[in-house]
Write a structure and sequence with these properties.
heterodimer; A: mainly beta; Sulfite Oxidase, Chain A, domain 2; five-stranded mixed sheet; 12 strands; 6% helix; B: 94 residues; mainly beta; four-stranded antiparallel sheet; 1 helix; 7% helix; binds zinc ion
Chain lengths: 204, 94
């Protein structure tokens, strides 16, 4: 049985009422695919998601176990650093709050997190951008299981940051004491990536 | 030659000519060795991904990213940690 909760309330920054498109972005109805490598196709029976506190395992879920965690539905706007934005996208998955709770942790053990994916992709995030309903591991898009091209079976979803932070094919989340650059962040892309402040590149 | 443990009195400027020679080559033909599997092939034979953000060139044998390039407003960031060596030779020069 799954519980569905609504109202994934991302922290909203003050900005002109009704303006949903960050500076330098254009709205598209398409869902462009951007990948740094070939699309991995991990069978669900071999899929697991791990939560790590530094080097030690804090939680690990099989696909079946992951489905039994509380499920949350959200509708959000997403913004890619290549300048497209897509409004009103519908997702379902498990919030990072629920993952932390399911791992038996009272609170996040460290202030930063690295996401590791099939295919070797990584991205770094402050934990405060993932908790309080701001981030999830999404398995469904628009009511359907997430397609491999879009990161299925499961991707990170952090809609208030540029979409390269919403890592496709996520398999492991590691809490860390200090921030470290991930795959694009080590190639001149911004360490944080706030679309409302146009933090595309290092130094923005 | 400096003795072991002694710091060089020269800096990279003294290698300027050599650096210009090394970095002025046609990378597409440069034999490049993958850190993942040790195979060597010209960069033109690597597989291209993510051209929207720069370029990720992966080894066709093991998928290792061999050459990674980030295109930013302040330049092109080149990461060659996936390549053990790149032979910067102009094949036209004997
Ligand atoms: Zn290789």
């Amino acid at each position: 049985m799954t519980t569905t909760t609504r109202g994934f309330s991302g922290r909203r920054r003050a900005r002109p009422e009704g303006n949903r498109v960050p500076p330098g972005q254009f709205v598209t109805d398409d869902f462009p695919v951007l990948s740094a490598g070939p699309t991995p196709r991990t069978p669900l029976e071999k899929w697991t998601l791990a939560l790590q506190d530094g080097g030690s395992l804090a939680g690990r879920w099989t696909w079946e176990e992951f489905q039994s965690l509380p499920q949350t539905e959200i509708t959000v706007d997403i913004h890619c650093v290549t300048k497209w934005s897509k409004l009103g996208t519908k997702w379902k998955g498990v919030t990072i709050d629920h993952l932390i709770e399911a791992a038996g942790l009272d609170e996040p053990p460290e202030p930063y997190l690295m996401a590791y994916c099939d295919g070797g992709y990584t991205t770094n995030l402050p934990v405060e951008d993932l908790i309080g309903g701001k981030g999830m591991v999404a398995t469904h898009y628009d009511g359907e299981p997430l397609e491999p091209e879009h990161g299925g079976p499961a991707r990170l979803l952090v809609p208030h940051l540029y979409f390269w932070k919403s890592a496709k094919w996520v398999r492991r989340l590691r809490f860390m004491e200090h921030d470290e650059p991930g795959f694009w962040e080590s190639l001149g892309y911004h360490i944080y990536g706030d679309p409302w402040r146009e933090q595309r590149y290092d130094g923005d | 030659m400096s003795a072991e443990g002694e710091r060089s009195t020269l800096d990279g400027n003294a290698a300027g000519g050599l650096l210009r020679e090394v970095f002025a080559f046609d990378a597409t033909v440069a034999p490049t060795t993958c850190v993942g599997c040790g195979r060597t092939r010209p960069m033109a034979e690597l597989m291209l991904y993510a051209i929207e953000l720069g370029a990720i060139l992966r080894c066709p044998s093991c998928d290792q990213p061999v050459v990674r390039i980030g295109r930013t407003s302040r330049g092109l960031w080149l990461d060659l940690r996936g390549a053990t060596t790149v032979v910067a030779a102009d094949p036209a020069t004997p």
